[in-house]
Structures are given as C-alpha cells and as structure tokens.
Write a structure and sequence with these properties.
Strand order of the largest sheet: 2-1-5-4-3
Helix content: 55-70%
Largest sheet: 5 strands, mixed
Bound molecules: adenosine-5'-triphosphate, magnesium ion
Distance between the termini: 59 Å
C-alpha cells in the first residue's frame, strides 16, 4: 500500500515536472540557437555554408530566426526534412498548455518538426524562433522520465519498508499483545495475575490498555464477590431448607399444645404457632428465591376476570371486611400468559395492598383493573392505603431490601417483577402517596402472544 501511495504521489509530481523539463529543454535550445545566430551576426560578411550547417547541427535545430528589431531577420537556415507540424510559443504558454504539450510529445513516438518561439536571452532581440525535430527532445524526456521513475520506486520501496517496520513495532505488536492478554484473561478471569500491565508508549494504545486493565480489575473483583455471594447463597439455601424441616416439626408440636390443659400454655400456643408459621414462610420464600430463575412462562389464554376473582378469594377479600375489593376490567377480556405465574404476581400485589390498609386500622379499598390496546395488556392494582414507606420505595423490586413490614421478607415485589419480566413485560409503580399506591403490569402482545 505504501508503495502504491508513494507512486501515486510521485505521478502528481511527475507530470508537472516533465512539463517543466520540456520547457527548460526548449529554452536551452533557443539559447544555443541564439548563440549560433550571434556568431553569424558577429562576422560582417556571410559565413560559409559549412560553418552555418555546423552551427545549426551543434544547436540541433534546422532554422534560427532572430528578430533584433522590427525587421524580421532570417539568420541561419538549413533544409527542413518535413513540413512544420506545430508551433509553440514559450512566451505565452501557461502551466496547463505546457503539461498538455509535454504529454503530447511523450505519447507521439514519430519524429515531428516543430517551431518554437521565445524571448532571446539577455534582451538580445525581440524574438527568437527555431525549427527543430522532436526526436532529441523526446529522447531526453524519456530518459528523464525513467530516471524519475527509478528514483520514485526506490524512495517508495524504502519508505514502505520503514513504514511497515514502524507500524509493526508501534501498532501491530502492541495490538497483538492486547489480544493475547484478552484471550489469556478470558480463560481464567478470576486470576488477578492475568490482568494486563500497560506498557505501550503510543498514547491511544496505552489508553486502551489502561482501560482494559481497569475493566479486568473490576471484573475480577466482581467475579470474586459474586463467587463469595454464590457460596453464601448456597449456604443460606441449605440452612433455610433444614431450618424449614425443623420448624415444620415444631409446628406439629405447637399444634398439639394448643389443646393443653394449662390455660397459660393454651393461650400462648396461637402466638407460638403464628411465629413458627412466619418462620416457615420465610424459609420457603428464601428457598424459592434461591432457585436462580423462575421457569419460563407456559402461556395459555384465559379470562382475566376469573383469575382476578380467584386471587381475591384466595387472599380472603371475597367477603365483607375492612378491605373492599373492586374488579374493573373490560368485559370478556382474555389474556395470553402463564396463569399460575400471573396469579402469583397479582396475589403478591394484592396481599401487600391488604396488609398496608390493615396496618392503618382504617377501612380501605383495593381496585384491580385490566384493559388492552394494540400492543399490550395493562393490569392495574391500586389501593387506598398509606403509600410505600421510603425504604420500600428506595429499594423497589430489590430482593430482601425493600421489606419495611414487620414479618415481611421483602421478596414479594422482587418476585412479582421477575415473573412479569419473564413474560417480556414490566412491573411499574404508577403512583404512591398518602392517598394510596398503584402498580401497573404491562404484558406485551407481540409475536408469540398473538400466535395463540
Ligand atoms: N400497596 C402497598 N402499600 C404500602 N406499602 C407497600 C405496598 N406494597 C408494598 N409495600 C411496602 O413495600 C415493602 C416490600 O414489599 P414486598 O412485597 O416486596 O415485601 P414484603 O411484603 O415486606 O414481604 P413478602 O416477601 O412477604 O411479600 C413492604 O414491606 C411494604 O412496606
Ligand atoms: Mg409482600
């Protein structure tokens, strides 16, 4: 590539320089002819025809006309072998004309007779005109061209080799090193020894190396932390599992002491049972969350109103009570989703709402609404509760972190959000203030959903 580029640049230089060469050559000829003519003028008598021929031969021209004043003077002449084919006036020729004429000489191999007009040197007259053959001119031009070409090839070859070595040393080598490091690091990203140590001197590559090093350091750190968390997760799961089994046995015994003859024991039994039940629930929730992922949704089409009624009944909202439940959905609305998972999502939201209302001690309402448009189904769960506590709002949908309710695990919303995400949808908080809270579930209808 370097070779080609340098040659291209040389061509750009070559064309004007060959034109210049031709103009210089012709000027030189005019000068020689002028000297020859001056020899003639120097002698008062006519010079001998042999001397005249010799003067013209030396100047490599056929005729010389030197005009010293208004009278045109034919000074030297010899027979012209062919008619004159072209006239060149060097006094007026611009750069383009010179280039054009030079190219013409180069591409016309046959010998032509031309007339060249120019200014005599040293103000030795008004005009000088010579007739000459293009053969010597062309020969000199070709020799000059081949010289330039040879030098160009040499320059470009040397440049190419130097550039190639420089690129290899400054760019290709360091890039290869970075790539090698990346591959090595990818094999064992936990190994901190494989993090690249920046060493290049080229600024941009150095920056790339430094960025890579910092990324690798962060990644290695994150992986280590993740590994520790995974180990911790595994331990928590095992503990939860065994703890749940122990607590389940405890539940059985607590069941029995409810019927104790001792009134104090019998009185404490329901509280004990409630505590154990909560502990079992916590263990089960932890275990469920520990299963890294929910299974992919098994989509079916079902009537939304039925599902909503089922959930409210399961949550104990069907009858009269402190919390009233209103279902407001488009009549006959059917949804294409995993019914079981959507049941869990809704029951989590409704349970939270019920618990929030109950905690205030005042009656309240939960409203479930559903509708559809061309792109999605939208399900709303709103309540007239006290709104989300700050802690819950700051860690919304984050497992174990948002729980602000006594006895809650802080998993409900995280699980609900994950299940909705599994459907390609999203769970969002629409509003939460002292008048209540509203969540919205968006389920997309795209592609697969419509197939059913
Ligand atoms: N509708 C709501 N109104 C007021 N606060 C709410 C509402 N929904 C959730 N919250 C708050 O957000 C917190 C997080 O809810 P989330 O369901 O994730 O966990 P949790 O209810 O505490 O525990 P669980 O895992 O048993 O559901 C709750 O503790 C509660 O304080
Ligand atoms: Mg909850």
């Amino acid at each position: 590539m370097t070779l080609v580029f340098v040659l291209l640049a040389e061509v750009l230089i070559f064309v004007p320089s060959i034109a210049r060469f031709r103009a210089d050559f012709l000027l030189e000829k005019l000068k020689q002819a002028q000297i020859a003519a001056l020899v003639q003028l120097a002698s008062d008598e006519m010079i001998s025809p042999e001397l005249e021929a010799e003067l013209l031969r030396n100047a490599e021209v056929f005729n010389v006309v030197l005009r010293r004043d208004e009278v045109r003077q034919l000074v030297l002449s010899s027979p012209v072998p062919k008619p004159i084919e072209d006239d060149f006036d060097l006094r007026t020729a611009g750069p383009w004309a010179l280039i054009k004429d030079a190219i013409k000489v180069m591409i016309t191999p046959e010998d032509r007779i031309i007339r060249v007009i120019g200014n005599p040197v040293q103000e030795g007259g008004q005009l000088i005109e010579v007739t000459l053959s293009t053969k010597p001119l062309r020969k000199a031009m070709l020799a000059y061209a081949s010289r330039i070409l040879g030098i160009s090839v040499l320059i470009s070859a040397v440049t190419a080799v130097l550039l190639f070595l420089a690129v290899q040393r400054l760019m290709v080598g360091p890039i290869r090193r970075v790539v090698r490091h990346m591959q090595l690091y990818a094999e064992a990203p936990e190994d901190a020894r494989r993090v690249i140590a920046p060493s290049t001197h080229v600024v941009e590559l150095r920056q790339a190396e430094e960025a890579l090093a910092s990324m690798q350091t962060q990644l290695t750190g994150a992986l280590k932390q993740k590994e520790r968390l995974a180990q911790l997760g595994g331990a928590v799961a095992r503990i939860s599992h065994d703890l749940r089994n122990i607590l389940t046995s405890a539940q059985l015994f607590a069941d029995r002491i409810e019927g104790s003859a001792d009134p104090a024991v019998a009185k404490a039994a329901p509280k004990l049972l409630g505590s154990i039940t909560r502990a079992v629930n916590l263990c089960e929730a932890t275990l469920a969350f520990g299963k890294a992922e929910e299974p992919p949704p098994r989509l079916t089409r079902f009537a939304f109103a039925d599902l909503a009624a089922e959930v409210t009944e399961a949550e104990g909202l069907a009858g009269e009570g402190m919390v009233t439940c209103l279902i407001d959905c488009t009549p006959g609305l059917t949804i294409w989703a995993d019914r079981e998972q959507l049941f869990r999502v809704l029951s989590n939201l409704i349970r939270n709402a019920r618990q929030a209302i109950e905690a205030t001690g005042a009656p309240g309402t939960i409203e479930i609404g559903a509708g559809e448009d061309a792109t999605e189904w939208r399900i709303r769960v709103g309540d007239t509760g006290p709104g989300l506590p700050v802690k819950a709002r700051e860690h919304l949908f984050a497992a174990f972190q948002g729980g602000a309710r006594k006895g809650g695990t802080g998993l409900g919303l995280a699980i609900a959000a994950e299940l909705v995400r599994g459907h390609g949808g999203r769970l969002e908080l629409v509003r939460s203030d002292s008048d209540g809270t509203e969540f919205a579930i968006h389920l997309p209808r795209g592609g697969l959903a419509e197939a059913g």
